[in-house]
Design goal:
The structure holds three protein chains of three kinds. Chain B has 13 helices and two strands. Chain B is mainly α. Chain B has a domain of 179 residues: MetI-like (MetI-like fold), CATH 1.10.3720. Classes of the chains: A mainly alpha, B mainly alpha, C alpha/beta. Chains in contact: A-B, A-C, B-C. At the A-B interface, helix 1, helix 3, helix 4, helix 5 and helix 6 of A face helix 1, helix 4, helix 5, helix 7 and helix 10 of B.
């Protein structure tokens, strides 16, 4: 009797301790970034390390007003765009990329989930294999195409590439979600006189709506932090947040304070967003694949 | 539903067509590059060398080394994240106060830009950095994380695991929560202990989800570029030079487009083969 | 799982709106607190635009100095800037060129983020005002600069008009026909006035470094040959006239080497370093555990050792040239550098991780080296570019302002070696606005401009007059010994010391691949994977493979 209670207590204690340790491990770099972004530059690399001994918002001000440069207070990159512009670019490109990718993926996912036809498996694996290829493989030829078609350094250009990056994931996840929708519902709609297309719009999509939102959010998450496509295929006009991080690497040293400020500013919007929609993310990750 | 018309094809066409359209030119271009020798700054342009280039590639010791490094990294990282992710998931499905907050925290590492993760951990894991400082306080010996070729690759895997284990963990958590209750209840009635439940009931039931999550992680680990480049740039004595980094160097540093094309072709078909082999093992519903 | 969908959707929308609102408010608040800083205005008025330099009223307190201070985070008072611009403009009006001949055009320039380009950007409004040419630009950090320029120049079809170029990269770009020789402009009276430019004021090493020509081997392979060391401008000009040599860029400053060391530690431990071997004997004495806690506080040596052509090999090349004057390649394009083991050994011994050098040294690039030295953790910094010195003299960034010593690099048996780099502007050959680009390159190297900007990190200038100005004005915190060191070094010792055609020093266009292999050899030796001789032999084999693949007639 006592041993049972004791064992329960110990396991509870162990659980709490482990949870705290893991939380510390996750929060540690982020708290360190916060620390750096609020300290003046000389204090960053002292040994033993200092923690929040002086607080100055200098880094955030510099980053948000575009005045990141030194000397004559002229910006270090791109003529001094404030970081909000970069965040906005990230939002536009990543957001449009994910939504448009879903629109494009719906017909394909529907077809692959409902019908069995020759080459269905081939399509499925081919689409997935696109996800496996490193971006390098398409980068240089894509750059040449973009230069030739004037898509270089435009929002549209980057969005097109993000659609490309999101499609495999979108198709795969949507196949799973569409399979969750019971065929009976669709067949009922068809019997009631709907065409297949309107059946899709009236039955399948609403029922799978949480799935759609999940995929949208996951796609957004993955392209928000994309670096290499944005770096090679854009220049001055469409600089997204990850690429703007490079601006902190000035000639003499890496400006860690501003780097940390930018990283946190990139992280916070997406984290708040994700916090409120985490249910959808988790849903997306399961694909609803569990059948009893 | 079995339909013998062309209708399903047309539905798949937009998505598949988009992918192909965007990649057909790059793929063809890479194919063409593979048979060329082209130093980008050569005013004479590319010159045809046929299969000679592939012969050079096959005999290139750095290529062998990069391939091995890539395989170690990819499979090592996936395995590591599976173990850590599973443990995190088991932890997060216990009953304790603040459980919801804990789960939210798990999303945090995934949301940070990989380049930033790389730079941050590079400084934290500096031999004179904070982590070693804390280790000293606890009484352990400081470890030289990235300083030596022998340890650099494994330290990189740890950093990658920090960022991506939550991905696996969240998949498992969600899958656990979606499990039907009856089988588990039956097991409890039959007297199964907690670990027996996990091992014999829950894990088999979530096998599909887990496999798909692992496959995504495998794909991404194969492609990893940002983290490795930011921290070691190919590493002390090529210790962390994966195929992606080696290709980047060839294409953008040394301007040897022919080599880059050959490497890209190799990576492309290699990954296709891997996906095919692995996908055959999962039961796609 | 059944979820009450309506509630979730509402929460989701509210959350999204809330987040967006928060960000917008925060951003608006900060922007409101700071007046706009940058304008790229092109005005045709006769007064200098006053919106280009603003002392910001930022949240952190930065005091505005009333005299120019040699730090890199100065806020120059508006009046100073205006006076400098006025003087430069007056000086330029004295030239026999019509500055406004290309009025109304617009050029696109690529800048590497460094003090040279930063000061250039600060003075851009003056250029635009004087010439009526609008300058659009893009600034990139070092590694990405190389990537982007290669891409843009190679496929851009005239997108870029002018680039920042330097003697090590020039053979690659010139060989690919991406930048063009400036000879035609130099002999064009409408575009170049030698008297006004004061060609004899320029240290002749600059003309030599930026000049060269191409020859073709029997196999058709093109090879860069560096110009001979011109004694003065006349010699250079004759060579250009005869089309024996070509000038590719108008250099603004040298990046030669200074040996940075801690004066206080040297005198305290009675150390004097004159040769490379002295470094070896001094290293154990200078590795210090000051507070006796078992942890080394000061390492004796640091050098850039991260993997890459622009790290260890660039530091090593001057060392090599002070031991051997026959170049890196010998008869039949076969490498001979692997026989000169001594300097390699010294470098490797000094750089062993954790002993006399920081444990992370194999990942140290430019930033980490200068960071450590500025934090006081290093006693000797392997001779590196002049420009890093300004970081060490900046009280806001460095703890060793008073104690940094500046000296010539240590000697080898053949004397002091050097590795010439140094930035300047080149005109792109596919540009459609070549004359405008040349005017920009010319203006960026003019006498008054280089003079005034010398204290702000345009080190080391190529002009004697700039050094005179430094000696005259004695900017605060700027040691005169350093001025003397830079001037003497660049006149006498600095040279190109990378691999060239057999028996010569020069720059092969395949430099990056070759020196990447050398950098890997260094890492192999330093980490103990191979012995020094083995690493050198391995590297020599790699070089043979690379050279053969590149089409050189390796015997």
């Amino acid at each position: 009797m006592y041993s049972l209670v004791l064992r329960k207590l110990i396991s509870k204690a162990v659980t709490y301790i482990l949870a705290i340790l893991v939380s510390l491990a996750i929060l540690f770099p982020i708290v360190w970034l916060l620390n750096i972004s609020l300290l003046p530059p000389q204090e960053i690399f002292t040994y033993p390390p200092k923690f929040l001994t002086e607080i100055s918002l200098e880094n955030y001000v510099k980053v948000l007003s575009g005045g990141m440069g030194e000397k004559y207070q002229i910006a270090a990159t791109g003529g001094g765009t404030p970081f909000q512009v970069n965040l906005l670019n990230s939002l536009i490109c990543a957001g449009s990329g994910s939504i448009l990718a879903i629109l494009l993926a719906i017909p394909a996912a529907y077809s692959l989930s409902r019908f069995r036809f020759p080459l269905a498996n081939f399509f499925r694996y081919q689409i997935l294999s696109f996800r496996l290829t490193p971006p390098i493989v398409v980068l240089v030829p894509l750059y040449l195409i973009y230069q030739a078609t004037n898509l270089y350094d435009t929002h549209i250009g980057l969005v097109l590439v993000y659609i490309l990056a999101n499609l495999p994931l979108a198709v795969w996840l949507l196949i799973g979600f569409f399979k969750e929708v019971p065929i009976e519902l669709e067949e009922a709609a068809l019997i009631d006189g709907c065409t297949r297309i309107s059946a899709v719009f009236r039955v399948v999509l609403p029922v799978a709506s949480t799935g759609l939102i999940s995929v949208a959010i996951l796609s957004l998450l993955f392209t928000w932090n994309d670096f290499i496509f944005a770096f090679i295929l854009t220049g001055n006009n469409v600089r997204t947040a990850p690429v703007a991080l490079l601006g902190c690497i000035s000639y003499e040293q890496i400006m860690w304070g501003q780097l940390a400020a930018q990283v946190l500013l990139t992280l916070i919007p997406i984290f708040i967003f994700v916090f409120f929609v985490q249910k959808y993310i988790i849903r997306g990750l399961t694909l609803g694949a569990i059948k009893g | 539903m079995k339909i013998k018309s062309l209708y399903p094809f047309f539905l798949v066409l937009p998505a598949w067509g988009y992918l192909i359209a965007f990649t057909v030119f790059p793929t063809a271009y890479n194919w063409w590059l593979s048979f060329m020798d082209w130093y980008f700054a050569n005013p004479l342009g590319p010159s045809y060398i046929g299969l000679e280039g592939f012969k050079n590639l096959i005999y290139d010791p750095i290529f062998h080394y990069s391939l091995i490094t890539t395989l170690i990294y990819t499979f090592g990282v996936t395995l590591l994240e599976l173990i850590i992710g599973l443990s995190l998931a088991l932890l997060a499905t216990q009953e304790f106060r603040g459980r919801r907050l804990f789960r939210t925290l798990l999303i945090l590492p995934i949301a940070i830009t990989p380049v930033a993760v790389g730079l941050t951990w590079k400084v934290l894991l500096n031999t004179d950095g904070i982590v070693n400082f804390l280790l000293k306080i606890i009484g352990l010996k400081p470890i030289s994380w990235f300083a030596y070729p022998t340890t650099a690759l494994y330290s990189l895997m740890l950093v990658d695991a920090w960022q991506w284990s939550p991905f696996i963990a969240l998949s498992i958590i969600a899958a656990f929560e979606a499990l039907p209750i009856p089988p588990i209840e039956a097991a409890i009635i039959d007297g199964a202990s907690y670990w027996q439940q996990i091992r014999y009931i829950k894990l088999p039931l979530i096998k599909d989800v887990l496999t798909i999550a692992l496959m995504f992680r495998l794909c991404d680990a194969f492609k990893t570029f940002d983290i490795i480049f930011a921290i070691t740039g190919g590493g002390p004595a090529n210790a962390t030079q994966t195929l992606a980094i080696y290709t980047y160097y060839n294409a953008f540093y040394w301007l040897l487009m022919g080599n880059a094309g050959r490497l890209c072709t190799f990576i492309f078909y290699f990954s296709f083969v891997i996906v095919y082999i692995l996908a055959r093992r999962i039961k796609v519903e | 799982m059944s979820e009450p969908k309506k509630v979730d959707r509402r929460k989701f929308i509210y959350a999204g709106l809330g987040a967006v609102a928060l960000i917008a408010i925060g951003a608006a608040a900060y922007v409101a607190m700071n007046p706009p800083v940058v304008t790229k205005t092109v005005t045709t008025s006769t007064t200098v635009p006053t919106t280009s330099v603003v002392t910001t009223t930022s949240v952190a307190t930065t005091t505005v100095p009333t005299t120019s201070v040699v730090t890199s985070t100065i806020t120059t008072p508006k009046s100073e800037m205006e006076k400098m611009m006025e003087n430069i403009e007056k000086y330029c009006q004295g030239a026999k060129i019509n500055w406004r001949q290309k009025e109304g055009t617009s050029i696109y320039v690529l800048f590497l983020s460094n003090p040279y380009s930063e000061t250039l950007r600060a003075f851009l409004p003056l250029f635009e005002k004087m010439t009526g040419i609008h300058v659009a630009y893009d600034v990139l950090p070092a590694t990405e600069y190389w990537t982007k320029t290669d891409i843009l120049l190679g496929t851009g079809k005239g997108v870029v008009d002018a680039v920042m170029n330097h003697p090590l990269i020039n053979p690659e770009w010139a060989g690919a026909n991406w930048v063009m020789p400036l000879n035609e402009f130099l002999f064009n009276e409408k575009l170049f006035d030698p008297n006004w430019f004061d060609v004899d004021d320029v240290i002749p090493t600059s003309w030599y470094a930026c000049s060269g020509h191409f020859t073709k081997l029997e196999t058709g392979k093109q090879v860069w040959v560096q110009a001979p060391k011109f004694k003065n401008f006349n010699e250079a000009s004759m060579a250009w006239d005869k089309k024996e040599e070509f000038l590719w860029l108008l250099q603004a400053h040298f990046e030669g080497q200074t040996f940075y060391y801690r004066k206080d530690l040297f005198s305290k431990y009675n150390v004097d370093v004159k040769t490379w071997e002295d470094c070896l004997t001094a290293a154990p004495k200078l590795t210090l555990d000051l507070d006796k806690d078992g942890k080394i506080d000061v390492y004796a040596w640091v050098a850039r050792n991260k993997k890459g052509w622009n790290n260890a090999p660039i530091s090593y090349a001057p060392m090599y040239s002070s031991y051997c004057d026959k170049g890196w390649l010998g008869e039949g394009w076969r490498p001979i550098f692997q026989n000169i083991v001594k300097p390699f050994e010294i470098f490797v011994e000094l750089s062993k991780p954790g002993r006399w050098a920081p444990p992370e040294i194999l990942n140290y690039d430019w930033y980490f080296c200068s960071q450590d030295f500025a934090a006081g953790k290093i006693a000797m910094y392997c001779p590196d570019a002049h420009s890093i010195g300004s970081t060490f003299l900046n009280p806001q960034k460095s703890k060793v302002v008073e104690t940094t010593g500046f000296a010539h690099p240590p000697k080898g048996p053949l004397g002091i070696g050097g590795n010439m780099i140094g930035w300047g502007i080149s005109v792109c050959s596919q540009s459609t606005k070549k004359e405008a680009a040349f005017l920009f390159a010319l203006w960026a190297a003019n006498k008054e401009y280089l003079k005034y900007t010398a204290p702000y990190g345009n080190l080391a200038p190529i002009r004697h007059s700039a050094y005179e100005w430094l000696r005259q004005t004695k900017p605060q915190g700027f040691p005169m010994e350093w001025v003397d060191q830079m001037e003497e070094f660049n006149e006498k010792y600095n040279k190109i010391s990378l691999a060239g055609p057999p028996g010569q020093f020069g720059v092969l266009p395949e430099m990056k691949v070759l020196y990447d292999a050398l950098s890997t050899a260094f890492q192999n030796a330093i980490s103990g994977k191979m012995t020094c001789q083995d690493a050198l032999n391995w590297c020599a084999d790699e070089w043979v493979r690379i050279l053969k693949q590149a089409g050189y007639p390796v015997s």
